[in-house]
Write a structure and sequence with these properties.
The protein is built from 13 helices and seven strands. It has helices at 20-28, 30-43, 62-80, 100-104, 107-112, 116-119, 175-199, 225-239, 245-249, 260-270, 299-325, 330-343, 345-348; strands at residues 49-55, 87-94, 122-128, 141-147, 200-212, 273-284, 352-362. It has a seven-stranded mixed β-sheet, with helices on both faces.
Length: 363
Amino acid sequence: MGVLSMKGGDGEHSYANNSEGQKSVASNAKPVVVENVKEMIVKMDFPSCIKVADLGCSSGENTLVVMSEIVNTIIATYQQKSKNPPEIVCCLNDLPDNDFNTTFKLIPAFHKKLKMNVKEKCFISGVPGSFYSRLFPSKSLHFFHSSLCLHWLSKVPDGIVENKKNIYLRSPCPPSVYKSYLNQFKDDFSLFLRMRAEETMPNGRMALTLVGRKAVDPLSKDCFQNWSVISDSLVDLVSEGVVKESEMESFNLPFYNPDESEVRKVIENEGSFEINNFKTIFGLLFSYKTGLTEVKDDDLDRFEVIKKRTNIIRSITEPMLAAHFGDTVMDRLFDKYTYNLAQRYDTLRNIPTVQFFVSLTRK
């Protein structure tokens, strides 16, 4: 499948410097997270040690911002009942290729913000491994969090050799390609839930934010614009002799953005968790990940927005693309991406984005 980790480090194209939008989405999910942490504590009768995990933590500060909110909620809930704060274990999980060190360098600043009586009771560790496998001992976790990760599949689906000029679903494509992607999502999400069910204590909670889609039709143009621009940019490089056609035709993204019914059905069919809350949030393609609250139409703003958008997509996809096509073509590829994005700007700027905030309780 190649490398499925965000771009590490703290350079211009790094995930750490291009994930303001993901931070904003996590902030929007904060009320759901806080409510579920509080309810979990009460249901479990204020345990003396609480273990939480962020699955798909990536690199940079975002995971520590989430952990800070969870820790602060735990402490405040205990203080309201005049109880001594518990020991809190925060586990940061991602694949072994993830740049954990960029995050670990920020831990001293994270600890510094905690009150003295909390600082000595909060422990952070990294847990490398796929969240489509077991990561923790049985019934050892109180709370799981995962934001904008479960659209990444465990592998590229089988049976999509006919998808030659695209790196993802796109109209027109054979119906079998869509079915392969959907089946892979169902298998992976079911496996994810089954693994977490084994690791979660009874009445433990899970708060998930998923990239979704509004359209029931998975081939609607609203569902794949980021990837169609990359596909077209690769086709351009093939025509220029920079990329081999066989390389282009053999690359597909391990990605799937489900609709609400597909998510609900997997949760209900797997059966280990009860849905507490299922909320759909809509945004716009050029605003939710740029962190910009307004996109103006003058040329300077347009250029800056397009450049920023390119850096965001590069920070997410470059490790995968470089593993398949080679590092040397990345600058050319994303120059093409920037150009093609600019050509479609007026159409793409109104494309909706969809996230699902889902909270679950272990039955």
